[in-house]
Amino acid sequence: MNQEVEIVECLIIGSGPAGYTAAIYAARADMKPVMYEGLQPGGQLTITTDVENYPGYPDGIMGPEMMDNFKKQAVRLGADVRYGLITKVDFSKRPFICIADETKEIHAKTVIIATGASAKWLGIPSEQRLNGSGVSACAVCDGFFYRGKDVAIVGAGDTACEEASYLAKLCTKVHMIVRRDEFRASKAMQHRVMNTPNIEIHFNSETDEILGDNVVTGVRIKNTKDNSTKEIDITGFFVAIGHTPNTGIFKGQLDMDEQGYLITKHDSTYTNIEGVFACGDAQDKIYRQAVTAAGSGCMAALDAERWLSAQE
Question: Taking the model in full, what pTM does it have?
């Protein structure tokens, strides 16, 4: 079967703040960008509610509405935004060969990767049901809404300890649910958490159920040693067990760390392959904010434009 082939100047894989910003800049540079939005158009922000920490929205904005605005701006400026998935790539020669939805072959002069990362979840039904109604995977994004309230956070690594410390500054009480009898976090982070008076650590504990009909009202935790359970009254439940970068299709072609985050050259969005650029949470495991993702999307488009100009 002969596959349909399309030649594009700039292919953007993935959407969200990074991808849409890259599309805006690439479109204004007359690179005629083609974007494939991926399985979750708009990325992680489409499963958040209020966004209050993005500049320019004095009254805050809902995550899905914000991403819709980003998309509309990209389209207005000339980006070709498509619902679909890049399922395979070959970066071994130029132009780069990318397969969309397993059927369409695209030859791209430059590629910008903005596939993001997905939060790891516990996998219990109440967690998904109450997602955005008290359940969150980002304390920095949503902690503000729980000022003066009691919350719980699950996790045992550096990120969990960091987010628990952040929440402790805002919340009356932070219940930290740790599966084993010790942390995985660095000693410094452990000390910080253990020396914070309003953080209560529940070792040898796992989440049995998040309680509440329409919003979170509590959590039931189970002791992993004797299977006893207890219920704690809370209004916010934070999951901090890590993220998985959506970079599987680039394995073996692009340099990545042991967790799968793409490695970019210092002060740039260049990957190890000339003409392929990475931005947003697919390469950022430190900040993971909408505003930093958007900034790196801008960088990727500028890098791609300059690289392309140098080639020509």
Answer: 0.83
CA 103 centroid distance within chain: 28
CA angle 259-264-265, nearest 5°?
Answer: 140
pLDDT above 60 for 133: yes
> What pLDDT, on a 0 to 100 scale, did the predictor assign at position 23?
98
Encode pLDDT of 62-82 as tens digits: 989 999 999 999 999 999 999
CA distance 22 to 300: 6
Residues annotated catalytic, as ranges = 138, 141-142
User: Count of CB atoms within 10 A of residue 200's CB?
Assistant: 14
Q: What is the pLDDT of residue 3?
A: 61
Out of 2.130.10.10, 3.40.50.150, 1.10.101.10, 3.50.50.60, which CATH number does the structure's domain 5-118+243-311 have? 3.50.50.60
Classify domain 121-239 at the CATH superfamily level: FAD/NAD(P)-binding domain (3.50.50.60)
DSSP-assigned letter for residue 109: E
